[in-house]
Structure formats: C-alpha cells, structure tokens
Design goal:
single chain, 294 residues, alpha/beta, D-Maltodextrin-Binding Protein, domain 2, Alpha-Beta Plaits, 9 helices, 15 strands, flat, binds adenosine-5'-triphosphate, binds magnesium ion
C-alpha cells in the first residue's frame, strides 16, 4: 500500500488547468506531460491521477484515489446514477469553475417554464440530476441522454428543450436558446470517501487543505494603500470591504492628510475606488496578496 497521497484530477478540460494551478499555488511541484495517467509531485509524497472528470467520484469511492477535485455537478450526478450508492462526499468547496445546471429552450418556441415540460423531451448529459428534479416537481417528461453538444438537440429535432451546464450563457445565446430554470449550482469541490486515511496521509491532507484555504482567501484579499484627509478616515474605512481597523500613518509635512493601509477580505472594484476618490482619497494603490496564513 502506497503512502503517497493520491489525488484524482481531470486530465484535460474546463476543470484541469484551474486544478493544476491551485495545486501549484499550494507549493506542489509537478509537470503534466501528454498521455500519462500519473504525475508524481517532486517535493511532497503526492501522486496525481489524471482521468476523465466522470471517473473521479468512483476513483475516490473505490480507493483508487484518496481525494479528488471535481465539479459538484459531476459528483451529484454520479451519486444519483450509482445503484449501490457512492462513497464520496464533499470535504471542501474550492470556489472556482462556478456554473449552473439549467433548463433552456429555444427563444422562439413554446416552452418558457418548467410546467410546460410535461409530455416533452429534454436532452441532457445529466440524466440523474434531471430525473431527480422532474420527479420532485411531479413532471413527466422524457430525458434524452447525449454525451455532448446538447445545445444542438432542439435544432436537430431530437428534443424540445435541454438541461445543460451554463456559465456565461454565451453558448445558449449562440444557439438561440434561453435558460428558464436552474436545477443545480456547482463549483469545483474536493471530495473524499468515508475511509480513514493513515495518520501520515491525513496530516498531509490537513496541510494541503490549510494551504488551499490560504490560496482561496488570498485570491479574494487585497492590500489597499491610500492618502486621505484626516477627517474622512472613518467614512473611507466604511467603504473598504471587509476591513475593520486600518493602519493610519502620519505624512511628513502634511497636517491634514494621513496614509491609510488595510487588508480587504473581498475584491475591490473600480466603483469602490471612484467612491473613495470622491471622499478625498488620493494615490490609491490596490495590491494583490500572494500568500496568507491566519
Ligand atoms: P472529461 O473529458 O474529463 O469527461 P467533460 O467534457 O465532461 O470532460 P468539461 O467540459 O471539461 O467536462 O467540464 C468539466 C467541468 O467544468 C464541468 O463538469 C463543470 O463542473 C465545470 N464547468 C464550468 N463551467 C462550465 C461550462 N460553461 N460548461 C461546462 N462545464 C463547466
Ligand atoms: Mg466528463
């Protein structure tokens, strides 16, 4: 039995690059070369298993991997379609690859709400989640299972509507479809089975999860520096997202001005900068934070 922590990841696709990047930001050093199923991490006892995303939940459930990174949509689907039940659960939400599994129909057609699906055909790659939803809502419709290109189903006449993943909505729009109901919201998640890990592996997993937490937090956290009129410090602090006590530093030769520095735990948008400027803030700098540990 290997004592290296085995992580199942999507080999290629929408989840792959962000998963690799997350692990690299956590300090794992590895190289992905075409073809191979396995990538060894050079500086830690970790192996990466590179597979199709649909296989990740069963890899974890069947002890081919200790943990996996997969879209929540895939986990839920595999749990619903697996007859004997699947021993894989979410350990941590990862915040990237956010998307929705939505119902959509042609803009110029008759269907624009869920009740109208009765007696129709719905094309999908997610028969488990769709079937479960239809059952809960008491709708009888036929689900037509496809492996891909679901958005083409209405135009080629094999279904009246579709149930597919949507992020920006651009693919739907390009195919003359619009979404009318969300049946599942999804993001990338770290999954694990109920099996107990060896003490060494568990310690390594805890370390990895604490680093992932730091990466997620620091990606949303910014350091802001600005000069402000002394009498506006309170109003300016109010505007800074998620920062309660900024550092205030006097400015040489300027009685009425101070320098203000703060860690903001949420993203700072252009609108916030414009509001800060309107309050008299000047020389505003927003800096990324590379690493964080609290
Ligand atoms: P594989 O070859 O590994 O089976 P796939 O074709 O099934 O890949 P991808 O299209 O690469 O899957 O998507 C992987 C995951 O990325 C999805 O399951 C979903 O969680 C996430 N995702 C994020 N945004 C989108 C989107 N707009 N469309 C589809 N998937 C998205
Ligand atoms: Mg897949």
């Amino acid at each position: 039995m290997t004592d290296r922590l085995r992580i199942a990841l999507q080999k290629k696709g929408r989840l792959a690059d962000d998963s690799f990047e997350l692990l690299k930001k956590c300090g794992l050093r590895f190289a992905i070369r075409g073809g191979g199923l396995l990538a060894r991490v050079k500086n830690m006892p970790i192996d990466l298993l590179l597979v199709r995303d649909d296989d990740i939940p069963s890899f974890v459930a069947n002890d081919a991997a200790d943990i996996g990174i997969v879209g929540e949509n895939v986990l839920v689907e595999e749990q619903l379609v697996s007859r004997e039940g699947l021993d894989a659960e979410i350990t941590m939400r990862l915040g990237f690859s956010r998307c929705k599994l939505s119902l959509a129909a042609p803009n110029d057609g008759d269907i624009n709400n869920t009740e109208q699906l009765n007696g129709t055909r719905i094309a999908t790659t997610y028969p488990g989640v769709l079937g479960n939803f239809l059952k809960e809502r008491g709708i009888s419709a036929k689900s037509v299972e496809m492996k891909g290109a679901v958005e083409l189903a209405p135009s080629i006449g094999i279904a009246e509507s579709i149930c597919d993943l949507v992020s920006s909505g651009a693919t739907l729009e390009a195919n003359g479809l619009s979404a009318f109901e969300t049946i599942l919201e999804s993001e990338a998640v770290l999954i694990q089975s109920g099996r107990k890990l060896s003490a060494d592996k568990q310690a390594l997993l805890n370390k990895l999860m604490s680093r992932i937490d730091g990466v997620i937090k620091s990606s949303e956290t910014k350091y802001i520096m600005l000069n402000a009129p002394k009498d506006k410090v309170a109003a300016i602090t109010e505007l800074l997202p998620g920062s309660d006590s900024p550092t205030i530093i006097p400015l040489a030769g300027k009685d009425k001005l101070v320098a203000l520095q703060a860690v903001c735990t949420e993203n700072i948008f252009w609108e916030t900068l414009e509001d800060l400027k309107a309050l008299g803030a000047r020389a505003i700098l927003v800096l990324p934070i590379e690493k964080m540990m609290s």
